[in-house]
Specification:
Structural class: alpha/beta
Helix content: 40-55%
Domain Helicase ATP-binding: 32-202
Distance between the termini: 57 Å
Domain DEAD-box RNA helicase Q: 1-29
Protein name: RNA helicase
Bound molecules: adenosine-5'-triphosphate, magnesium ion
Shape: elongated
Number of helices: 20
GO molecular function: hydrolase activity; RNA helicase activity
Enzyme class: hydrolase
């Protein structure tokens, strides 16, 4: 099967080739001919399998560019998706000179009116703004032959049904209607019955709703240790780019801020932000300047960014549809992806019901230990260094410095000092605080206190033990084992010593660095 066999306009074929598409995906193979034949189609296929082009290619093929009228209209649930779909259709239709225009709320309506006046062939928009233009008379859909509802089920779920039906009233009777989504719950059938003529159901998901290329994992975490748990995961995984989903807008703001404060390249996205800000974050994410996009479900549907290696459900999704679409932001167009879900003890039930609905089990993984995080950071650093060593740049401005230093000192010492100067910061964070991880990772009968020792505090475990012992009166042996790593340090002590150690830590001052214990609390026993 290839694109040539559809007998598409040569300019559209050129557009498809320019996109780098070599052969049609399964949903495209079935939908393109059906839409070209004029059928109404309900298309369901897993996330990231090319549904946009499945409706986009025949829709663009259908456009008669000599007529400067809107001939196709696509509705999408979010602004970002409308922009993205418009962009993909613009690219595929470029050789044919098809003019596409996204229209969505939050953008100057005057500018949209101006653009519409110049004449466009395809409009892609969110239902509310589309309706606004129709009522003002600044958008005419009298000549529309194809209408598409992308993420149809989501638009029904979001309560857009009235708006959608209102938009449809502006369309001629004899239009083709296409519905697309990775999930098609029952509600869709009613819409189909009402508005479609002999709809063709095209489903290619073979019983699996989630894309098989995505590795699905969950971590058990404690509510008050979520942020720390997340940071450990981020520091031990190879995340090229990731989307982190939160339940609420406030949660997005807080997490984006907390991650930024810890030196991650993070940006927030939710529906209460000004459109300019939304655009700025989205563009930065697409460029790769933002590595972690922290978002509400506004980014769960349709968003296609090539390099996303991880989707992390910082808050577990409300339902299985949300889960399927969220994790579908990775593992797109045949690439692999990793989906990680943080689950608190209270949310285990929720996880089980998602598993039942998607018909799949998530793999449970232990949070990486501090040792693993430290190892991973060392490994990354070593790889980066090796890359520089192998690049063998003879013009390095550091060559002379090193020659001078190695004439005086042991080369090994010089290297260690250089690394310390360059990277000591990376192995600590600027935030002085202690977190109680409760039972996470602690040996039976022991409690762990997690200490964030702060930037360059230079605390050595024996000194800490000594200080605790001296200041608390607890025998040094009873203070227990203390490990100091990069971002976190921890003290593991017997249950009964915990209250004393807690108190001692609160008052401990070492090398002038105050060990601050603010959010700590006794062990969570449930
Ligand atoms: N035939 C093809 N060959 C290679 N890549 C393709 C092909 N068709 C589409 N793609 C690319 O695959 C990616 C995913 O496509 P698309 O966004 O249309 O997926 P989708 O099925 O709509 O997913 P979702 O359910 O998440 O909206 C895009 O980057 C797109 O350009
Ligand atoms: Mg899509």
């Amino acid at each position: 099967m290839n694109f040539e066999s559809f007998q598409l306009d040569s300019s559209i074929l050129k557009g498809v080739r320019e996109m780098g598409f070599e052969e049609p995906s399964p949903i495209q193979a079935e939908c393109i001919p059906a839409v070209l034949r004029g059928e109404d189609v309900i298309g369901q296929a897993q996330t990231g399998t090319g549904k946009t082009a499945a409706f986009g290619i025949p829709l663009l093929d259908h456009v008669d560019i000599r007529r400067r009228q809107v001939q196709s209209v696509v509705l999408a649930p979010t602004r970002e998706l409308a922009i993205q779909v418009s962009e993909e259709l613009r690219k595929i239709g470029r050789s044919k000179r098809v003019i596409t225009l996204p229209i969505y709320g939050g953008q100057s309506i005057g500018r949209q009116i101006k653009a519409l006046k110049q004449g466009v062939h395809v409009v892609i928009g969110t239902p509310g703004r589309m309706l606004d233009h129709l009522r003002r008379g600044t958008l005419k859909l009298d000549d529309v032959e194809i209408m598409v509802l992308d993420e149809a089920d989501e638009m029904l779920d979001m309560g857009f049904i009235d708006d959608i039906e209102a938009v449809m009233k502006f369309l001629p009777e004899s239009r083709q209607l296409l519905l697309f989504s990775a999930t098609m719950p029952q509600g869709i059938r009613q819409l189909a019955q009402k508005y479609m003529r002999k709809p063709r159901y095209i489903t290619v998901s073979r019983g699996e709703v989630t894309a098989p290329v995505i590795e699905q994992v969950y971590y058990k975490v404690l509510e008050n240790a979520k942020l720390e748990s997340l940071c450990r995961i981020l520091d031990s995984e190879e995340v090229s780019q990731g989307i982190l989903f939160c339940r609420t807008k406030k949660g997005v703001d807080e997490l984006a801020e907390a991650l930024t404060a810890r030196g991650y390249l993070a940006g927030g996205l939710h529906g209460d932000m000004a459109q300019q800000q939304r655009d700025r974050v989205m563009n930065a994410f697409r460029r790769g300047d933002v590595e972690l996009l922290v978002a509400t479900d506004v980014a769960a549907r349709g968003i296609d960014v090539g390099n996303i290696s991880h989707v992390i459900n910082y808050d577990i999704p409300q339902d299985s549809e949300s889960y399927v679409h969220r994790i579908g932001r990775t593992g797109r167009a045949g690439r692999t992806g990793i989906a990680l879900t943080l689950v608190t003890p209270r949310e285990m039930k929720q996880l089980r019901s998602i598993e039942i609905e998607i018909g799949d089990r998530l793999t449970n993984r232990e949070l990486p230990s501090l040792e693993e995080v430290a190892e991973r950071q060392q490994q990354v650093l070593t790889e980066q260094l090796e890359e520089i060593i192998q690049s063998d740049d003879p013009a390095s401005i550091f060559q002379e410095m090193v020659e001078a230093l190695t004439a005086k000192y042991d080369p090994e010492k010089v290297a260690v000092a250089a690394l310390q100067m360059a990277f000591a910061d990376r192995f600590t964070s600027g935030n002085d605080a202690v977190y109680d991880f409760g039972e996470t990772g602690a040996s039976p009968g022991m409690v762990r206190f997690f200490i964030n020792v702060g930037r360059n505090a230079n605390i050595r475990p024996p000194e800490l033990v000594k200080a605790i012992a001296e200041q608390s009166g607890i025998h040094p042996k009873k203070v227990g084992r203390i490990n100091i790593y990069d971002r976190f340090s921890f003290v593991e002590v017997p249950d009964e010593a915990a209250p004393f150690v807690f108190e001692a830590l609160r008052q401990t001052k070492i090398n002038g660095a105050r060990v601050n214990l603010e959010p700590a609390r006794p062990r969570n026993r449930n």
